[in-house]
Amino acid sequence: MRLQIGSAFGIPVYLHWTLVLVPLLFLQGPLDSNLALVAAIAVPLTFLCVILHEFGHALVARCFGVPTRDITLYPIGGVARLEKMPEKPLEEFLIAIAGPAVNVVIALILAPFAILLAFGSDLNLLTTLVFWLLISNGMLVAFNLLPAFPMDGGRVLRAVLAAWLGFYRGTVAAVITGRVVGVLMALAGLFLFHNYMLLLIVLFVFFAGQQELMYARWREGQRLRREEMLDIPEVLPAHPLGDHDHHDNAVHEPPLILQPRVSVYIWDQQTGTWLPENRSPLKSPL
Ligand SMILES: [Zn+2]
Prior knowledge:
Blueprint: E1 2-8, E2 11-16, H1 21-26, H2 33-63, E3 68-74, E4 77-82, H3 89-118, H4 125-144, H5 152-165, H6 167-191, H7 197-230, E5 235-237, E6 258-260, E7 265-268, E8 273-276
Parallel strand pairs: 2-3
Antiparallel strand pairs: 1-2, 3-4, 5-6, 7-8
Helix pairs in contact: 2-3, 2-4, 3-4, 3-5, 5-6, 6-7
Zinc ion binds at residues 53, 57, 99, 144, 152.
């Protein structure tokens, strides 16, 4: 269940219903009117930064001929649904990096204002908002660049590894790396920060990694099948087809072995011509 809030570049943008939970988070503690005002402006602006991040992915994907079906905002972030996965590692790399790059640009635009405001005397609403957005964009970059699926960093890592190892082996290496990073994050969360939310993220990492592995396996199967169809050799059974009568028990039938058909011609001195090997007088039983 989701609500369309608009569209840009022909891509509809939706809010997922679970976003109604976000204001509830702010209603937990004692309600400070200043904090409520800051949150009421800052939270939608943060989600706007997330939407811009997703458009970063979508517009770079469009440059490579990959359309985006839609963009949906969830409480933990946004998702741009691309119609297909880019084939080339460089394309995947650029599409994946485009999202965090948008947040880097926003942070770079906000940084001079933050520096100017930091020298101001009082902490007003504008200063709080600028710092909030600067920090949240920095966090978006850091979180999204974690080298684990489903984060953008997982795709960046896979693209780099795929350029080197090929798509399938690159995906396996990226998923293993992501899982190691995930487990380390979970351990750090538990023992250093006593934060159990990180365990949830690790579950996401394992699930998303599994999805990527399944897709990579399927794609590798398709590739191998295509290759087989392209250079399948002309094949003949290893034993003549009419030979079955000699076997009285079908169980002992040797398995049908496919082997390339090689035509061998032998010079027949009697007729002065080239003859196929099986018709050569040299091989015919006397
Ligand atoms: Zn992203």
